[in-house]
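Intended use. Records like the one below are meant for learning the mapping from a protein sequence to its folded structure. Do not use them to infer anything beyond what is encoded.
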Amino acid sequence: MPPLAWRSATTAPRAGRARAAEAYLIPHLPSGWGAAILEVVKLLIVVEQTASGFSAYSPDVPGCIATGATREEVEQLMREAVAFHLDGMREDGLSVPPPQTYATYVEVAA
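Structure written out for the chain above:
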């Protein structure tokens, strides 16, 4: 299965613009400006092994998924997919909702 990073068919044209802007802006920001311009949010990503590789999703970003051959690949694609999704929300005038989910483990007799 080829790698997939998906937000929505309605926002696909933004992908080129977002990548181009990021490729230009990030290296050209004066030292220390990144934190002042870009808000950082920490989101839970669930990664699952599949028959053909790995898939990932974020419960806090419905519909935003990624697949890849390795864990590293799916994590990187998910980072890109979430960033693209949040950029699209901002472009549409929507606020980024705060994360609501967390992960924990429970122990039970097997």
